Amino acid sequence: MLPTNCPSCQAQLKVKCLRCENCQTEVSGSYDLPLLALLPESDQQFILRFVINSGSLKEMASELKLSYPTVRNMLNDIINKIKTDEK
Amino acid sequence: MKSNGFFRLMVNPFTRIAGWQAFGLGLVFLVVSGIIGGFGNLVFDGVIDSHLVKQVTMMQSFSYIAISLLTLVLVMWIAGLFIAKGFRFIDILGTMTLSKAPFLLLAIVGYFAEMPDMNEVMKNPLAIFNSMSMVVLMILSIPVLVWSITLMYNALKISCGASGGKLTTAFIIAILTSEAISKLLIYFLL
């Protein structure tokens, strides 16, 4: 799991360096983490399953053995988190 | 850990079951409650009410249940519209129907309860304690009521996706309103 927060002060981390495994070139800078990477792993898994299920909450509910409104509430929570992170 | 999961399922089954499934299961509980209540002269004359009466027909028993259920569902649906958006009516209908399932316990105990002589009770209120089955019914009605109200709260919470003070306030107003409306409807219609 990609760390997104500083273990010392909990502030949001930025990407400082990316490296090519093929030619060892390193690209340095200060890059924001993608929005999805800021979400907890469980939320990322939910989004992945949601996409795989063609965005069908009914199929998600059946797969997770949860009720339809519970799954819809989980999705709403993730939407709220993304909206907060966007700000 | 397992008993914790079972307890959670008993007070909030709606994370697992809602919509038509909950409605179907809830209807089974209500029909059985209505039949046993009809034979045992126990009526569910309000959203969170039940009383032993001298005589009740099967038609009356089901009419009481239908009025209280419809009132509960409609008032909770309207409450939901105030605190949330984008929820399904069928989830409110299903979860609220299932939340009345604990009343089956009262119907079963009520079947064996004996109606005390009201003239005697009027003279001496303590005479009500002469009937052991009546005492059991009265004691059992408290946890059943708490259980059912907890289920109704969780039904509204899950169906609408609401939380916090807004949900609690809306629920309290809705449960009191639905109880009052159901009582009035039963008084005027039956």
Describe the structure using short key phrases:
heterodimer, A: 87 residues, alpha+beta, two-stranded antiparallel sheet, 3 helices, 2 strands, B: 190 residues, mainly alpha, two-stranded antiparallel ribbon, 73% helix, 2% strand
Description:
The complex is a heterodimer of chains A (87) and B (190). Helix content of chain A is 45%, strand content 13%. In chain A, strands 1-2 form a two-stranded antiparallel sheet. Chain A is an alpha+beta fold and 87 residues long. Chain A has a domain of 52 residues. In chain A, helix 2 packs across helix 3. With 190 residues, chain B is an all-alpha fold. A two-stranded antiparallel ribbon of chain B has the order 1-2. In chain B, strand 1 and strand 2 form a beta hairpin. The interface between A and B is medium-sized, with 9 and 16 residues.
Shape of chain A: elongated
Task: Give the terminus-to-terminus CA distance of chain B.
Answer: 48 Å
Q: Strand sequence of the main sheet of chain B, in spatial order?
A: 1-2
Largest interface: A-B, 9 and 16 residues
The fraction of residues in strands of chain B falls at under 5%
Strand composition percent of chain A = 5-15%
Please specify the SSE layout and strand pairing.
The complex is a heterodimer of chains A (87) and B (190).
Chain A: E1 15-19, E2 26-31, H1 41-52, H2 57-64, H3 68-86
Antiparallel strand pairs in A: 1-2
Chain B: H1 2-11, H2 19-40, E1 42-43, E2 51-52, H3 58-83, H4 89-98, H5 103-112, H6 118-123, H7 132-160, H8 164-189
Antiparallel strand pairs in B: 1-2
Could you write a compact summary of the structure shown?
The complex is a heterodimer of chains A (87) and B (190). Chain A has 87 residues and is α+β, with helices and mostly antiparallel strands.
